C-alpha cells in the first residue's frame, strides 16, 4: 500500500512537469502562430488527457481552418456554392484556381524553438533534480526506520 502512495507522488510530479512543459509550448506556439483575426492564436490550448501522464497542445475543433494552416493545401479549384459566380477583388468568375497554401507547422516550430533555446532541457533538468531529492528523501526515511534486531 505504501508503494502505491509513493507512485502517486511520482505521478503527480510527472504531471506537474508535463503541465509546465505544455504551458511553455503553448506560449511559444501563440507567439509563432500566424495571425489575421487572432482566432487561431487564441485557440491554442493545453488539453489534459484521460490517461495518466499524457498531455497535448493544439487547436480545438472550434477553429476549423487550423488544419489547413498547419498542413497547407494543394492547388484546388474553388466553385461558387450558392450563386453562379464568385466575386473577387479582381472580377467575377465561374471558378477560381487557387494555388494552394504553404504549410505553417507552428506547433512543431514552437517545440523546435523550445529545444533550441534550452528552455526544455532546463525544465527537464529541474524535474530530474526534484525527483532525485524526492527519492533521496524517501531512502533517508527508509534508512531511519531500519531497526537492528
Notes on the structure:
With 149 residues, this protein is α+β, with helices and mostly antiparallel strands. The chain has one domain. Helix content is 53%, strand content 15%. It is built from five helices and six strands, in the order H-H-E-E-H-E-E-E-E-H-H. The chain has helices spanning 2-32, 39-42, 66-71, 106-117, 119-144; strands spanning 44-48, 55-59, 76-78, 86-88, 91-93, 96-98. A two-stranded antiparallel sheet has the order 1-2. Strand 1 and strand 2 form a beta hairpin.
Largest sheet: 2 strands, antiparallel
Roughly what percent helix?
40-55%
Instruction: Give the domain tally.
Output: 1
Radius of gyration: 25 Å
Residue share in β-strands: 5-15%
Enumerate how many helices there are, as a single number: 5
Strand order of the largest sheet: 1-2
Beta strand count: 6
Tell me the span between the first and last alpha carbons: 25 Å
Overall SS class: alpha+beta
* N-to-C series of helices and strands: HHEEHEEEEHH
Low-confidence parts: none
**Overall spatial form:** elongated
Task: Quote the average pLDDT.
Answer: 87
Amino acid at each position: 500500500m505504501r508503494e502505491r502512495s509513493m507512485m502517486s507522488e511520482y505521478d503527480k510530479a510527472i504531471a506537474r512537469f508535463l503541465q509546465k512543459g505544455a504551458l511553455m509550448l503553448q506560449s511559444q506556439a501563440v507567439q509563432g502562430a500566424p495571425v489575421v483575426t487572432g482566432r487561431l492564436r487564441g485557440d491554442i490550448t493545453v488539453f489534459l488527457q484521460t490517461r495518466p501522464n499524457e498531455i497535448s497542445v493544439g487547436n480545438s475543433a472550434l477553429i476549423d481552418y487550423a488544419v489547413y494552416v498547419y498542413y497547407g493545401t494543394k492547388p484546388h479549384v474553388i466553385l461558387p456554392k450558392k450563386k453562379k459566380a464568385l466575386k473577387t477583388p479582381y472580377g467575377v468568375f465561374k471558378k477560381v484556381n487557387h494555388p494552394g497554401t504553404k504549410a505553417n507547422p507552428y506547433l512543431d516550430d514552437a517545440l523546435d524553438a523550445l529545444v533550441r533555446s534550452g528552455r526544455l532541457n532546463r525544465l527537464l533538468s529541474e524535474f530530474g533534480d526534484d525527483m532525485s531529492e524526492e527519492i533521496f528523501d524517501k531512502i533517508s526515511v527508509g534508512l531511519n526506520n531500519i531497526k537492528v534486531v
